[in-house]
Amino acid sequence: MSWEVSKVEHLRMEFVLLAREEWVSMTEVCREFGISRKTGYKWLRRYEAEGLRGLSDRSRRPHSSPFSVSGEVVLALVRLRGEHPFWGPKKLVRVLQGEGIEKEEIPSLATIGRILQRAGMTEAKGRGRPRRWDPEKPLQEAGKPNDVWTVDFKGWWRTGDGRRCEPLSVRDLYSRYLLCLRPMHSRKTEAVQEVFQEVFERYGLPEVIRSDNGGPFASMTGPHGLTRLSAWWRSLGIRLDRIDPGHPEQNGGHERMHGDVAREIAARPSRTLEEETERLERWRIEYDVERPHEALGMKTPGECYRCSTRRLASVEPYRYPPEFERRSVRRDGYIKFEGRPLYVSEALARHPVALHRLTETTWRVWFCDLEIGEIESAPGAALRPLAYATPPVQREPVLPMS
């Protein structure tokens, strides 16, 4: 039986009264109430220690939080916001640093936004979510084929047999050539990476891949928005372009193509998913080699597209400077630092990162040409993400991608 919220304490009382009988098997009574033996013994102990009051739900709030914001910082933020009502979190962080507050005590931009919101000092939320990382630079322009590929999932629909059809689409920005339009059984990294492996082997590698901020292309919490998929792209020497959250018009050509798919395919679905897969592939070939595009001077994408000269088989591992210390990221996202495990990011699992000594006690962590964060040579020290308060400096990579 299920334990509904409205009946949970009553059910726990019935369970305790029944489980305390000498003739009752604990295994059988737990199975009857749909709980584990561990949970059953927990409620018995609480009843014996506190009586019926012990059967009530307790607060799940942790006793302590290592990421809590001190009252001093909260008061300083409220004071500064009162003095400068139109200043945002980035400006407030800069002022806090100038007032002598330690860098480690200053919360993230998202946390500052929540503090100001709870204090009633912000306007209504706009569209989209605050990002935890800043774009490296404006969206890349495409001057020739394979400069920029765009990728997205088309909104799903159901075929006649009730199965879900959600195509993954990959498109060359310059030539409008549609490289892939394949229904996916899953959005998991492994499934999407397998498709990209085939696309890379057939067409070569692009310079840039542009995507939205959804999974598995980007993460709102990973360093530089990296996921396991986009970290793999970066390790192949592919730069990452991401549109702003809530602004699909920044990938307008791709969305326009999806609109054509919606009208010509999804509006009249096939009987089975297998038929829909073949139909999408025929539509892709027609789109590439038969359908003229006004933006291409009425040429077809196939007339304008050429495969990339950067082949997947020729990609070499990224070369860090010799003074950097390489570390391999384990599957759980940890590296070994000074004899102890240090968490970096699960997005970088099975990729090499490098440590660059800045001072006697400070190290900077790199993944390819991306600065991931800094660490201190101190027991229990954790990776400290680089400050998001200021936009990143535009510069050349440490070494060119191989």
User: Distance between termini?
Assistant: 60 Å
How much of the sequence lies in strands comes to 15-25%
Kindly provide the radius of gyration, computed on alpha-carbon positions and rounded to a whole number of angstroms: 27 Å
Query: How many strands, which pairing sense, and closed or not: the largest β-sheet?
Result: 5 strands, mixed
Number of domains: 4
Tally of DSSP helical segments: 11
Task: Describe, in plain words, how this protein is organized in 3D.
- This protein is of the alpha+beta class and 402 residues long.
- It folds into four domains: 5-55; 71-118, Orthogonal Bundle (Arc Repressor Mutant, subunit A); 148-304, Ribonuclease H-like superfamily/Ribonuclease H (Nucleotidyltransferase, domain 5), CATH 3.30.420.10; 325-385, no CATH class.
- The chain contains eleven helices and 14 strands.
- The strands form four sheets. It has a five-stranded mixed beta sheet with strand order 5-4-1-6-7. A five-stranded antiparallel beta sheet has the order 8-11-12-13-14, with no helix packed on it.
- The termini are far apart.
- Residues 1-6 and 387-402 have low confidence and may be disordered.
What features would you highlight for this structure?
alpha+beta; 11 helices; Arc Repressor Mutant, subunit A; Nucleotidyltransferase, domain 5; globular; 5-stranded mixed β-sheet; 5-stranded antiparallel β-sheet; disordered C terminus; disordered N terminus; 402 residues
Topology, please?
Elements: H1 8-19, H2 26-33, H3 37-50, H4 71-83, H5 89-98, H6 109-118, E1 148-153, E2 157-158, E3 164-165, E4 167-172, E5 178-183, H7 189-203, E6 208-211, H8 228-235, E7 239-242, H9 252-266, H10 273-289, H11 301-304, E8 325-328, E9 334-337, E10 340-343, E11 352-357, E12 362-367, E13 370-376, E14 384-385
Parallel strand pairs: 1-6, 6-7
Antiparallel strand pairs: 1-4, 2-3, 4-5, 8-11, 9-10, 11-12, 12-13, 13-14
